[in-house]
Amino acid sequence: MPLPAEFAALEPHLGWDLATEPERYAKRLASSMQELQDFYEVAFPLLEDAIAYCDKFPIDELPEDARTLMHLMQSLVTVSFPVEVWKQARVPDSGAAMVHLLVEPVV
Amino acid sequence: MPHFAKPPAGSWTEQYPELGTGPVDYTDSIDPSYYEAEREAVFKKTWLNVGRVELLPKTGSYFTKELPVANTSLILVRGKDKVIRAFHNVCRHRGNKLVWNDYPQEEVKGTCRQFTCKYHAWRYDLEGQLTFVQQEEEFFDLDKNEYGLVGVRCEVWEGFIFVNLDPDAEPLTEYLGEMAKGLEGYPFHEMTEVYTYKAEIGSNWKLFIDAFAEFYHAPVLHQKQAVKEEADKLMGYGFEALHYQLFSPHSMISSWGGMAPPKDPSMVKPIERVLRSGLFGPWDRPDIEGLDTLPPGINPARHKSWGTDSFEFFPNFTLLFWAPGWYLTYHYWPTAVDKHIFEANLYFVPPKNARERLAQELAAVTFKEYALQDANTLEATQTMIAAKAVTEFPLCDQELLLRHLHKVVGDYVKENANAAAR
Lengths: 107, 422
Known about the structure:
- The structure holds 2 protein chains of 2 kinds.
- Chain A is built from 4 helices and 1 strand, in the order ααααβ.
- Chain A is mostly helical.
- In chain A, about 35% of the residues are buried.
- In chain B, about 25% of the residues lie in helices and about 25% in strands.
- Chain B has 8 helices and 19 strands.
- In chain B, the strands form 4 sheets. Chain B has a 7-stranded antiparallel sheet with strand order 2-11-10-5-4-3-6, with no helix packed on it. A 7-stranded antiparallel sheet of chain B has the order 12-18-17-16-15-14-13, sandwiched between helices.
- In chain B, β13 and β14 form a beta hairpin.
- In chain B, α1 crosses α8.
- The longest helix of chain B is centred in the last third of the chain and has 33 residues.
- Chain B starts with about 25 loop residues before the first strand and ends with a helix.
- Classes of the chains: A mainly alpha, B alpha+beta.
- Chains A and B meet through α3, α4 and β1 of A and β12, α6 and α7 of B.
């Protein structure tokens, strides 16, 4: 799988290698808290190292393994709220409300 | 006890005696006939922002803008002369919608050399001239010069494209007035990294402006977003703005927002500490010109605790600046008395590396979480206002902009009715 060797611990979580926010957000809503927690616990301690690895390249010319790593870290951002604060996948008090992201810079 | 000084009049609101201080009647947000009056008096008469010039980078770039509130759809296009023009999106032959893809109601964008109608292949150039008629000889004395696209007033301020359906409207910069003047020179053109959001909201359009034009709600509605100690502290403080100013029909609120970076890092989430970012944006200002000395309209009180300003351009365009060097826009497009489309755009300086990119990602993700809470609350408000058990609501001094908005809309509606009667 295309991950730099020093990030092999993330391999079980390559399902989070998602390029766009709608994909990452949908996966968060479809995951259990345990699944979010498991991913977070592996990914969060690697965040600084992942940034250092990706920052060896210009952001718009990332090699394939660094792109995958970036996508995983973007997914970490997406799951951080449920894990760090809410203890649920959806933001509290948001009911059936939907906000769709239409345009985003894709790494 | 106030944390920030009030003006000599005693309150922000009492500086503007025409607004009064009494309860406000919200029938204007549930009455279908009032909504019809708003469409005519407000949305067909005022300058409406439809996006930025970066959406139309070169000759032939175009996008369509659906304006159900004004019963029309527009084409925005950059011509061979580089000028941006707006046209009603209708073919002059028999009224087919000119530019659309599979679904006529969906907005589209792209680049083209000319517009060709799907129905009978009539063609228009980028300046709106009719250039080709299929089987032209079958028509009777058809002068192509008389059948160009129907233009709509279109003017640009600081890269923001505005349209006005009223051919007699005053020029854009006059309409935008002093408030806009005070923002000129902000480096909008440097902030081209864009995140665009859209939501269908089950409330009157004014209720969402109400929600974003006061921060009195912020420590309460959004308390579950923060770690507990921080949430308790914010709730204890409540909210007071640094400054308010009306430039009727427009208005602004200036606020603190001291979490960039926070004084006590334990008060923010772990991910925020690592990425140095959050709701208020990346804590580290981008390295561009134009942010060290802000235009005079931003942080008008020149307060050292300044964090964010919101400028409400009447009727439905909000421009919001954050101290760390990025901005947002909000648009509220009515579709019915109790429905509207909410659009938000986040604008950042393009990131140079992964660290900056992830800091922006965190700001964008956080924005969406807050917007979801705001959106959901609005539907609950709309339903209960519509129940009419209560019709008048007391607004506090921190809700000055709401009081002003409802008054101004009312004034436009009245003025339009009077003009029609004359």
